[in-house]
Prior knowledge:
- The strands form four sheets. Strands 13-12-1-5-3-19-20 form a seven-stranded antiparallel β-sheet, with helices on one face. A six-stranded parallel β-sheet has the order 7-6-11-10-9-8. Strands 17-16-21-15-14-18 form a six-stranded mixed β-sheet.
- The longest helix is centred in the first third of the chain and has 32 residues, at 129-160.
- By secondary structure, the chain is α/β, with parallel strands linked by helices.
- It is built from 16 helices and 21 strands.
Amino acid sequence: xxxxxxxxxxxxxxxxxxxxxxxAYAYWKxxxxxxxxxxxxxxxxxxxxxxxxxxxxxxxxxxxCNNFTFNEDDLSYLGNMKNSDGSPVFVPDxxxxxxxxxxxxDIDAVEEGTVVFxxxxxxxxxxxxxxxQLLETALLNIINFQTLIATKAARVVLAAxxxxxxxxxxxxxxxIDGALAASRASYIxxxxxxxxxxxxxLFGIPVSGTHAxxxxxxxxxxxxxxxxxxxxxPEKCIFLVDTYDTVNGIRxxxxxxxxxxxxxxxxxxxxxxxxxxxxxxxxxxxxxxxAGFPDAKVVASNxxxxxxxxxxxxxxxxxxxxxxxxxxxxxxxxxxxxxxxKLAAIKNKEGVWEPKVKVSQQSIKINIPGEHQISRFLRNGxxxxxxxFLQEDVxxxxxxxxxxxxxxxxxxxxxxxxxEEYKLxxxxxxxxxxxxxxPPIEAIKQNTKDNLQCFDKTHKxxxxxxxxxxxxxxxxxxxxxxxxxxxxxxxxx
Length: 493
């Protein structure tokens, strides 16, 4: 699927921060543009105080990289940029370099729908320094948002405890791009359908919707409106019952439901969009059951999120379908994931890879150096721990020690003989050529479900979740420690 081509009909190479281009120019001018480097994209904290995060956005990344090129309009725009003294920001030879540049990086990534944790790379980019740098902003833009929304959706779906969750957020989303990406990510996170018709077309997501209050208000009476809607959509009748009086609305829906049944059709349910949802849903369930409609669903909407749904579940609300909009697609309680993209290694003039570390007074901001992989260990299908490691340091070992990257007192010994090992980073591009086939969105959604089932319910609690063990293999931990001391010029003796 050519996502960016479908949406924009052109190059997205300028979807970047200006400093990426100034660095690219400086790399080129200093002769470093083709020097090989490794960058990792990762996040430092779970969003929403969650115990897990759902990776999403890789298909957008694949499409972006496949179409990564600077076209004539891009180069003309860059060529017209001037410094304060009137000289060009970018000289013509550099623009010619960009014109001829062909994407040639290796990219390894965690598959969409995978449960991921802080500090573990979601994407690893290896290739010419200038190309790695120019990819940063777009990759962060894509992965940050879709991963955030997929995680929010997964939490909402967990709160619904098996009930269907519909994503209704298009009208409240942050623009066209945000709405489409949010619909896609919400489906990956576990939603059953979207109201967003364009997302349905582009991504193959089921679409869902009934009618608004305006439909009811356009008729003289609510009953007349329900009858007209039933005449238009006898197979898909879910009536919005709270325009005037909710109880009377349910009564009118039942009357039209009986007319439908006489014609061989069945009313699917009623929707409540305001008021005390626990109270009115229970009244609706009681009235529908007494009238002979036990299979009719009670659908609820109205600024729902995982916390409100949990509360309604505790109150034993008779709701079986949840329409979730604003608080899902805007990630209402945390509007950004905060993923970062850091240089982890660079090849020196002698052709030797040198690990790189960013030092900070905040230990959480010290990155993990080197080109590494992530292994997930499972016992009888249950996730035990994730390990970040340099491949050569764990080959042929019977056990490993993993150390928390933030708190070195948190350590865990893993006996590998009784564990299944699953490597999370998969090859996506080799030398600029796509080697990974993006799965259908239904398969990605199933991957989310399968991944979550591997984790204990304590890791999936919506509040105060149990912390899942993720650590650096001890040699990698020591490498990072040594590099930090070196960069700070500390004497370790």
